[in-house]
Write a structure and sequence with these properties.
By secondary structure, chain A is α/β, with parallel strands linked by helices. Helix content of chain A is 31%, strand content 21%. The chains are: A alpha/beta, B alpha+beta.
């Protein structure tokens, strides 16, 4: 496919606010996972972004104020992202830049708080509860569109943990067909009791910081993150960014609502489709950022999928030991980590993990490894069997 | 862009259950008759899933089955797009009530059914479709967002598409803030080439939101249209039902509408 330039990007998660802080934590092997102060009743670790409590959304958008949109705003404010979108807006027009994001639960914490504070006689939710601008799935896309002064196509993809990765695919289709000239893609998901207790009920949450691909891995740690990327056609872009979306691949597992197909064939299909769209040889991939949730089944099936698609010598790692599993925005967060790896020539290892499951056959790194990288594959697999892989690369030939 | 073909339709709304019976009503040939919505038990879903699934999952399965059956196409070969504004409010309500308890206990089944793409997941499992599936959320323009995504996948990836747009009512008290008056869903099989089952060729373009939105022109049906964001597509279905060339204007976003042109295939 025709590559799209990633003219700008930014990311905020438990390991850092903005690109540089995020990369520093990876380089210095500092995990963002801490005992879950967000919900002390749960014995687990979380990747929480500190300080959101005191960072309300800007005044003229105050009806959108909630944890999810605060996190979106904090992320938008980093890495000159708004200024770069402003330049694109002046060039293309505000209605020619699409906003396509991913989320799993949007600002659901607002509804949780509204239920906690509901009238104990009538059950009525508090008057100041702004459901449509906070929890409704579209709310964060609407907020980001307004924050950036854009007036065109605005959508929210919600396919569980593949959501933000699929936003890149949807944006490519929009741009390829000329529906827009540029796109802001990304994802936002924030901590909420729904997901913390929900994943706990499925016995998928680890009591310790998650250890992807470890033989005795004990489940996921939940995190929160927001990230955004500005996509443009290279010939129209004034950006000097040398990073490109080279391919995407999507597939459905058609197997189970909350368990991936154990042989990894659904995941492999998405990975293969991304590689074929990029028209490269699987052996050219220099690094694979795994979905790597540290759930027993995911990591095992993903190892099989990787082995099937690229063999056993391509360096891989799972970075959720740093950030936690950020659900609907994992695809964006890990695309950003992949871009940091490309930019700095550093393959992240697998944080928290001391040994790799001996049954695994792919080349999963424990330690960070300096390496000149050209192509990186980033995997995201979600509930409902929704798989998406992104092929990111340096250079546009 | 070339035309797209509506090659199968499913519909489920108050007094509009099934395309065959709804078509003459939407066309204005038969009188609209109000009837309470029948209980849904889509045979597509395995019994265990069906028993635990709420109307958000059931309604999607029902209309998707109708559209695909009438298309005559192999459902496992269709990629899919699902759109909604509210996802599953019944689950949101149940989980939010549970987390208010001193020791919250969330049902694992409810939680794994709580993802927006649960209807898509069950659909893909039921028909064994390994094709891409995208679930999208919008406000007023949710139908247009999904129609665009489905058509662009035809355009760029040569897939034939199943498109499902639906929203279901929410329980009290969250019903007070979400404004969905009755369950409604539409499914369409959209193909890039004309099929024997194609009823209409459509195309669309983005126009300014200053243009007036289309109505069906039948009071009771326009009430359904305005009572559920997924039902904003009813003017398009009515135009297809009338079997005449024409165009309709549907909501898309705050600044733009979507003008859809329709021409009958027979």
């Amino acid at each position: 496919m025709k590559p799209l330039r990633i003219s700008a990007y930014t990311v905020t998660s438990a390991i850092g606010i903005g690109q540089q802080a995020s990369f520093n934590s990876i380089r210095e092997r500092k995990s963002g996972l801490k005992p879950c102060s967000f919900e002390p009743r749960l014995d687990t670790f979380c990747g929480m972004v500190a300080g959101l409590e005191t960072l309300p959304v800007r005044e003229n958008l105050s009806e959108f104020d909630c944890r999810n949109n605060r996190l979106a705003q904090l992320s938008l404010q980093q890495d000159d992202f708004v200024a770069k979108v402003d330049l694109a807006r002046k060039k293309y027009g505000s209605d020619r830049i699409a906003v396509i994001l991913g989320t799993s639960t949007s600002g659901i914490q607002e509804t949780e708080l509204a239920y906690i504070n509901r009238d104990n006689k009538t059950d009525l939710l508090p008057d100041n509860f702004k459901y449509s601008a906070t929890h409704n799935l579209y709310a964060t896309s609407d907020f980001v569109r307004r924050y950036l002064g854009l007036t065109g196509h605005t959508s929210m993809i919600s396919t569980a943990c593949s959501s933000a990765a699929k936003a890149f695919a949807s944006a490519w289709r929009m741009m390829k067909t000329g529906l827009c000239d540029a796109a802001v893609v990304g994802g936002v998901d924030s901590l909420a009791l729904n997901t913390l207790y929900g994943f706990s009920s499925l016995e998928l949450v680890s009591a310790t910081p998650c250890r992807p691909c470890a033989p005795d891995r004990s489940g996921i740690s939940i995190g929160e993150a927001a990230g955004f990327a500005l996509l443009e056609w290279p010939e129209q872009s004034d950006s000097e960014s040398n990073f490109f979306l080279k391919g995407y691949g999507e597939s459905s597992d058609a197997y189970h609502m909350s368990t991936p197909r154990p042989d990894g064939s659904g995941a492999a299909m998405a990975m293969t489709a991304a590689i074929e769209r990029a028209a490269i040889d699987p052996a050219e991939i220099d690094y694979i950022n795994m979905h790597g949730t540290a759930s027993d089944v995911n990591d095992a099936m993903e190892d099989k999928a990787i082995t099937r698609v690229v063999g056993t010598t391509t360096p891989c790692s799972a970075t959720k030991g740093w950030t936690g599993h950020t659900l609907g925005t994992a695809g964006m967060l890990e695309a950003a980590i992949s871009l940091l790896a490309l930019e700095h020539g550093l393959i992240p290892g697998t944080q928290n993990t001391e040994a790799i499951d001996p049954t695994f056959t792919s080349d999963i790194l424990l330690e960070n490894r300096p390496a000149e990288l050209r192509y990186v594959l980033s995997n995201s697999f979600g509930f409902g069997g929704s798989n998406c892989s992104l092929l990111l690369g340096k250079g546009c030939d | 862009m070339a035309d797209y073909y509506i090659s199968g339709i499913g519909i489920f709304g108050t007094g509009l259950v099934g395309w065959q019976t709804s078509e003459p009503v939407l066309a204005g040939h038969e009188k609209y008759v109000f009837a309470d919505l029948p209980k849904l038990a889509p045979a597509l879903l395995p019994a265990g899933v069906r028993r635990r699934a709420g109307s958000y999952i059931r309604l999607a399965a029902e209309v998707a089955t109708e559209a695909v059956d009438s298309s005559g196409l192999d459902p496992s070969r269709l990629a899919s797009v699902f759109t909604t504004t509210e996802s599953d409010g019944t689950i949101t309500d149940a989980i939010c009530r549970a987390i208010c308890e001193e020791e919250p206990v969330v049902s694992p089944t409810l939680f794994h059914n709580s993802v927006t793409n649960a209807p898509a997941g069950y659909w893909c499992m039921a028909v064994q479709s390994l094709k891409p599936s995208t679930s999208i959320a919008g406000h007023e323009g949710c139908f247009s967002l999904g129609l665009i995504e489905a058509c662009l996948q035809i355009e760029t990836e040569s897939n034939d598409m199943l498109y499902v747009c639906h929203d279901v009512t929410m329980p009290y008290p969250i019903s007070k803030v979400a404004n969905i008056e009755s369950d409604y869903g539409t499914a369409m099989v959209i193909t890039g080439a004309q099929k024997k089952t194609s009823q209409a060729a459509i195309n669309w373009k983005v126009i300014p939101a200053s243009e007036t939105l289309s109505e069906v022109g039948i009071k009771a049906i326009d009430k359904i249209r305005l009572g559920n964001p997924a039902a904003r597509c009813l003017p398009l279905l009515a135009q297809i039902a009338r079997n005449e060339s024409g165009s309709v204007v549907l909501p898309y976003n705050d600044y733009q509408h979507l003008q859809v042109t329709i021409s009958p295939c027979n």
